[in-house]
Structure prediction request, 264 residues.
Amino acid sequence: MKKIMLIGFGGMAHEVMARLPQGVSIGWIVAREGHHAAIADINGGAVKALLHPSECSERPDLVLECASQQAVREYAETVLNRGWDLAIASTGALADAQLLETLRSAARAHRATLTILSGAVAGMDGLAAAREGGLESVTYVSNKSPASWCGSPAEKMVDLDNVTEATVFFEGSAREAARTFPANANVAATIALMGIGMDNTRVQLRVDPHTTRNTHRIQAVGAFGEFHIELNGNTLASNPKTSMLAALSAVEACRRLVDDGLSA
Ligand SMILES: NC(=O)C1=CN([C@@H]2O[C@H](COP(=O)(O)OP(=O)(O)OC[C@H]3O[C@@H](n4cnc5c(N)ncnc54)[C@H](OP(=O)(O)O)[C@@H]3O)[C@@H](O)[C@H]2O)C=CC1
Ligand SMILES: O=C([O-])CC(=O)C(=O)O
Prediction:
């Protein structure tokens, strides 16, 4: 049985717990103290609640971050310095070039892997392959409902309650997008990390009162040719900011621990 550590106890973490592949169990959950009683109730006390990964004295088979960019800043280096493999959802934390370098060198030094979950988008394998031949441009457009942008800085850029048609409220680099919208624009950072980088990836963020889905459009142009991907993702019932596919990419990372044979 593979035993993983979850970081976070919100929408994505609950989806992972509900869909955990056979042969994988959750040994530890890093969460704020307010969640510890609920964690202690899972599977008759089989899961240990922690305030920090350093409280764990065993080696998890995988540490899965489903929390926030702040959580990546707080815990990722500790995890990698112990030589534990880490997969992150809050990829926008890596818009901080210094943190990215720190985590890369910790992973190299301790023979751990730092996996960027594909999250809410598809095509990251093709984008990384295209990069090998040279990419000219990568653009990303995110289109979400007002509920998705609620609680984000979008509130100050557009009137979310009264918007009547799809409206662009942000244009800039992936680095700016990921930093400004930490709970909504991790996808911009993921695309940048797999493609032409944080400063060269152009991003447009839109609010659309006529949708309930999170739509991600990627256009990549390079020596390989050109691709356009449009993904219309359903959101989690528990969190309209988060696409179900993002949670499913975390589930798939767990499945890789037990499936051998074919790999994408
Ligand atoms: N790469 C991608 O495509 C995507 C990435 N994401 C990222 O995944 C994250 C999780 O999504 P989701 O589960 O839907 O979000 P939720 O807001 O539903 O849950 C986040 C959980 O993480 C906890 N948390 C946040 N920061 C910390 C911390 N520093 N220490 C301990 N616990 C922490 C929260 O604690 P509390 O309840 O105490 O506040 C909460 O339990 C998002 O914030 C976003 O960064 C999301 C969607 C797509
Ligand atoms: O889940 C999504 O559609 C995207 C998201 O929140 C993010 O990029 O942070």
Q: What stands out?
A: The chain has a mean pLDDT of 96. The pocket of NDP (ligand 1) is lined by residues 8-13, 30-32, 34, 66-71, 74, 89-91, 117, 119-120, 183, 186-187, 190, 239, 242-243, 246 (CB under 6 Å).
